[in-house]
Amino acid sequence: MMTRLRLVLTLFLAVLAVPVAAQQGGPFAPRMIVNDKAITNYELTQRLRLVRVLGQPGNAEEIALDGLIDDRLRVAEATRLGVLPEDEAILAGMEEFAARANLTAEEFTALLTARGVARETFRDFVAAGIAWREVVRARYAPRVTISEAEIDRALALSSRKGGARVLMSELILPADTPERQASSQALADRLSRTISTTGGFASAARQYSVSSSRGRGGRIDWIPLANLPPQMAAMILTLAPGEVSEPIPLGQAIALFQLRAIEETGTPAADAVSVEYARFRLPDPARAEQVGIRLDTCDDLYGAAKGLPEEMLTREVKPMADIPRDLGMELAKLDPGEMITRAWGGGAEIVMLCARTPQLEASPDRGEIRQRLLNQRLGSYADSYLAELRADAIIREP
User: Fold this and answer.
1) Lowest-confidence range among 58-67, 114-123, 274-283?
2) For residue 71, which of 129, 145, 162, 332 sits 20 to 30 Å off, Cα-Cα?
3) CA nearest 226: which of 154, 152, 161?
4) Whole-angstrom Cα distance, residue 146 to residue 322?
5) Rounded to whole angstroms, how far apart are CA atoms 160 and 362?
6) pLDDT of residue 12
7) What are phi and psi of 360, to 5 degrees?
8) Is the pLDDT of residue 145 over 60?
9) What domains can you pick out in the chain, each with its CATH number?
10) How crowded is the C-beta side of 229, counted as CA atoms within 13 Å?
11) Which of 368, 380, 375, 133 is nearest to 272 (CA)?
12) What's the whole-number mean pLDDT along residues 196-203?
């Protein structure tokens, strides 16, 4: 009887302890209050993991918290206007988002789950974006018109400008397990704050980097700006020579970049770059090294892959904007016919650049120009609208 009483008492005290634990900072305790809606520690942890998986440049913790605050405001406004998305629209949005990484929603969700991101976190992230798109459309789309004169001016301003190339150094840290990701993130944060010279960056790269450039102090040869993944190019342009970037997630790695120099090339700048590349996967890293010695072009890979399953060799053409950032950075360093060998599962994969094609649109389509101007106008209105909602909101710590 006494044993049973102790058990009941223990359970009772445990139940009472739950709110206390939450108030003291448990996973479901409020981290921030936006008007009357709480953002919990759990939600912040989940969004932080999502931000890192997606590779958003900048301070991940600030991006995660700001994103959740904005999402609370977006969803609240969509609720007020009665434009919350239906489940079907959210599922379609998840598929569309996953397709950017050439995955289905199910595959992308599985990848997120493996990195500790719950499916509901991904769903809520997509739902908030769709809700906000509907808010902006409902509020501004009927009032926005693009005149023929505006299209003419845009066409006149689209005359070609000279391109640029950049000289950078890289420091790549491993993030292939949760433990390594946490330690590398802390190290990257510290190095980003403390390194102020090219010599200091080179020394840190030699000590910590896992990239093949570590022996050169992380130094990379000149790269045309257009060859970089678009988000990376935009980030690099915000740096002054000698400045170090914020930590940038690159798949299963975390990177720091230091801009050493930038110069105009005098050649026309491409609107976009498409690359043709091949990936040849082998379970034996030593075998991959042997194969690589005999390769001169992408066509040589077909002979090396003879007799192996078709999925071991892939060759495709994609805009640089559609390629995962970690792979895009590797391809940006290569000339056609050059290759790298990198880890893949328990084996290795050969990545070879077959061709790179700049896309210069000599005569933009007027319909495309109209849509581009419309999206820019709506985007500007959306940013101002969200800033207004933030200014009017009561955002406080609990």
Assistant:
1) 58-67
2) 145
3) 161
4) 29
5) 9
6) 30
7) -110, 115
8) yes
9) 25-156+363-398 (1.10.4030.10), 162-268 (3.10.50.40), 272-359 (3.10.50.40)
10) 19
11) 368
12) 95
Q: Name, in order, each residue with C-beta under 8 angstroms of 219's C-beta and a sequence gap of 6 or more.
A: 169, 202, 213, 260
Q: How far out from the chain centre does Cα 109 lie? A: 16
What the block records as the tokens of 226 is 């257009």
Cα–Cα distance for residue pair 36/162, rounded to 1 Å: 51
Highest mean pLDDT among 8-17, 146-155, 254-263: 254-263
The pair of structure tokens assigned to 375 is 């999206």
**Distant-in-sequence, close-in-space partners of 168: CB < 8 Å, separation ≥ 6:** 220, 223, 236, 257, 258, 259, 260
Residue-wise pLDDT for 285-341, tens only, equals: 888 888 878 888 999 989 888 888 888 899 999 988 888 888 999 999 999 999 988
Query: Tens digits of per-residue pLDDT, 186-198?
Result: 999 999 999 999 9
For residue 358, the cross-strand partners are: 273
* C-alpha–C-alpha distance, residues 140 and 201, integer Å: 47
**What are the tokens at 326?**
């970690």
